[in-house]
Amino acid sequence: MSSFAPTSSDSGSAGAQYEKYDAPDAEFFPGIGKIEFKPDGGPADTLVYKQYNPSETVQGRTMEEWLRFSVCFWHTFRGTGADPFGFPTLNRPWDDGSNTIANAKRRLRAGFEFFSKLGVKYWTFHDRDIAPEGNTLEESNKYLDEIVDLAEELQKKTGVKLLWATCNLFAHPRYMNGASTNPDAHVFAYAAAQVKKGLEVAKRLGAENFVFWGGREGYHSILNTNVKAEVTHMAKFFRMASDYKKKIGFTGTFLIEPKPKEPTKHQYDYDAMTVIGFLKSFDLDKEFKLNIEPNHTTLAGHSYEHDCVVASAMGMLGSIDSNTGSPDLGWDTDQFPMDYKNTSLVMKVVLDQGGIQPGGLNFDCKVRRESTELRDMFIAHIGAMDAFARGLKIAARVASDGTIPKAVQDRYSSYSTGIGARIESGEANFEELEKYIIENGEPQRVSGEQEHYESMLNYFM
Ligand code: XUL
Ligand code: CO
Same structural domain for residues 221 and 100? Predict the structure, then answer.
């Protein structure tokens, strides 16, 4: 059996070039200072904010309050640039590639320097991103505790907070047939034990949310799969997690992150409406909200903003993994979102529902494997933060101008009076509606004016 625990050969720092990063005051990004707001920056000034001004007020709140940006640890501090066809490419001079506590601590210190220089207030992680997995649960928990001690210290020192934590229930071979949907109850139990610890850690670090992404909760072949058993077990797992959350007094919001496919051919948490239907079917909808990732939304065949719109309409939009894909590729490329139209449509949803707190905009994004330098990590985040800041300002102008919201409101005005008001209030029935049609005949044809709306939006871009 292969070992997941740190081995004696990698129990320390792998060489002198890494040792300087072991010092508590080591600098990981020399030459890059705190990123500043410089609205008159030129096109090549990609290491300054030109749109994101954290203290600027938009619709009664600061940009920082609306946007609640977060850096994810897995892509940004565990990504190497390796892909199924090639080896690591990214220059991360502190990372010796070893599975040691010393290396984990260097990555974490690098992370907090990065968050602070960027000026984001939140971070996110999976349990196994920040600490090595051991050969037993007890060993893994011990490593995690040691790293969480440091995370707690760095959070205190920098003021950076934990937007959400999650458990990696998909990478280890034990989870190859699923975690809570695994046909083997022994694996279900392991996943439960791992999430129990994950919740304790989340509570300790003051996580404002806790995410469940069902990375292997689905199937590749229906021939070997009992769908009813699997989704029922998943619901039982969520119920137990919710019970334990209450038991330990963890107050963060539980979020499920939909994704239609990859790694399995069919994932049970296909998209926002599917997850909402699942939660309602198992009476879990009061315990959970959704963490929407637009790259997953487009993989499900929807437009970028669709799942944010649907989740919000149902009162279930809890947080956003704000990335983008390449719809021409058809897999999860986790790119940094740079498109103003996409960010405007998402921020319109956030604005209309009164904010995303206690969720945020988490950059579940990775730099391209060709973007090898440390400055590329900054440029990517800055560009995406600027895109969302610009999107916020556009959405705010759409709202304060009022033309588009008023036009949409007018489009539904027939429900305010007469027969429409009786439908709204639930008083109307089929017999009454039939009588209404016999008396009033054919409805008038009313233009949907899609092009008019598209042109109006472009006015604000
Ligand atoms: C995978 C994905 C995950 C979740 C957390 O596609 O988005 O990183 O965000 O497990
Ligand atoms: Co995600």
Answer: yes
Per-residue pLDDT at 330: 86
Specify if 10 maps to a domain. no
Instruction: Give the ligand whose atoms come closest to the C-alpha of residue 75.
Output: 1
In a domain, 370, yes or no: yes
The CATH number that applies at residue 267 is 3.20.20.150
Q: Quick check: 174 pLDDT over 90?
A: yes
179 Cβ below 6 A of ligand 1: no
Question: Two tokens at 52?
Answer: 């994101």
The count of other CB atoms within 10 Å of the CB of residue 406 is 10
Q: What is the pLDDT of residues 79-131, one digit of tens each?
A: 999 999 999 999 999 999 999 999 999 999 999 999 999 999 999 999 999 99
Q: Pseudo-torsion of CA 311, 359, 381, 36, nearest 10°? A: 130
Contact 209 CB / ligand 1 (< 6 Å): no
Position 214 in a domain: yes
Tell me the whole-structure pTM to 2 decimals: 0.96
Task: Write out pLDDT tens, residues 430-443.
Answer: 999 999 999 999 99
Q: Which of 127, 167, 213, 295 to probe ligand 1 with, by most ligand atoms within 8 A of CB?
A: 213
Counting ligands in written order, which one lies closest to the CA of residue 260? Answer: 1
Convert 128-167 to b/e letters by CB count within 10 Å (16 or more is b).
Answer: bbbbbbbeeeeebbebbeebbebbeebbeeeebbbbbbbb
Q: Which residue has the tokens 């508590």?
A: 24
pLDDT band at 2 (very low <50, low <70, confident <90, very high): very low
Domain region containing 434: 417-460
pLDDT tens sequence across 176-220: 999 999 999 999 999 999 999 999 999 999 999 999 999 999 999
Told to judge if 172 belongs to the known catalytic residues of this protein, a careful annotator would answer no
Looking at the structure, do residues 244 and 358 belong to the same domain, yes or no? yes
CB atoms within 10 A of CB 323: 24
Number of compact structural domains in the chain: 2
Of 161, 169, 168, 203, which Cα lies nearest the Cα of 188? 169
Does residue 376 lie in a domain region? yes
**Residue whose CA lies nearest to ligand 1 atom number 5:** 213
pLDDT at 16: 83
**Res 258: pLDDT:** 98
Distance from residue 50's CA to the centre of ligand 2 (Å): 27
